[in-house]
Design a protein that fits this description.
212 residues; single chain; four-stranded mixed β-sheet; 7 strands; three-stranded antiparallel β-sheet; 42% helix; extended; alpha+beta
Length: 212
């Protein structure tokens, strides 16, 4: 495989791309590039149309890069190019994470868990004891006194403006004031399994199991 340095201006996105790249992903791509550099080439055709690596290209552009490492696949038919794009997006999805190895990696990092693409709070939770995890998840969604005060002020301010616009009728006439008890999310259900699969907590936001 011959890797070539290509001018960023030579590269361009295809007219249609299967994979969407939200801003959060591009931000994590940038973090990865800053931390490790470009670890895999962009695959393009002889005209510079990117077949694999469109998100990576977006990240390089955002960073202001002038060149990119590329592998040029020349001579592919239009159908072959479409098949390559489809295969690249799907084959990766067919893999799965080895949870035991993942847990070992997190443990061996010993708290140094600034890893592009991963939520640091989640990695910290995975390192915690069941008691620590219970405390962390149970407090999910709870507001501080300062946040409660801020929400109350916003409510009053919005009610005042709306009342002026509606001739004095407030849309909040029957709405209870903001209180601490009213702004605390339901406590998460925390469970432990004495099984080979290990222990987990249930996320109060999405209901998914987070294995410890």
């Amino acid at each position: 495989m011959l890797i070539e340095q290509k001018d960023i201006k030579f590269l361009k996105h295809p007219k249609k791309n299967i994979r969407k790249h939200p801003d959060k992903q591009i931000c994590e791509y940038v973090r990865s590039l800053e931390m490790f550099g470009q670890t895999k080439p962009i695959i393009c055709n002889e005209d510079g149309v990117v077949l694999v690596g469109n998100g990576l290209l977006d990240a390089l552009i955002r960073m202001g890069a002038e060149t990119a490492d590329c592998y040029v696949m020349a001579g592919l038919s239009e159908k072959e190019q479409m098949k390559l794009m489809m295969a690249d997006n799907k084959v990766y999805d067919l893999g799965s994470t080895d949870v035991d190895v993942f847990d070992a990696f997190v443990s061996e990092l010993q708290g140094d868990i600034d890893v592009p693409g991963w939520d640091e709070e989640l990695l910290q939770l995975l390192q915690s004891t069941p008691t620590e995890a219970t405390k962390a998840v149970s407090s999910y969604g709870a507001y501080t006194e300062e946040q409660i005060s801020h929400l109350s002020e916003k409510k009053i301010e919005h009610e005042f403006v709306t009342a002026e616009q509606t001739g004095g009728a407030s849309p909040y006439a029957n709405v209870a004031p903001v209180t601490k008890s009213a702004t605390v999310a339901p406590v998460a259900v925390v469970e432990e399994e004495v099984m080979a699969t290990g222990k987990y907590v249930i996320c109060p936001k999405c209901g998914e199991k987070i294995w410890l």
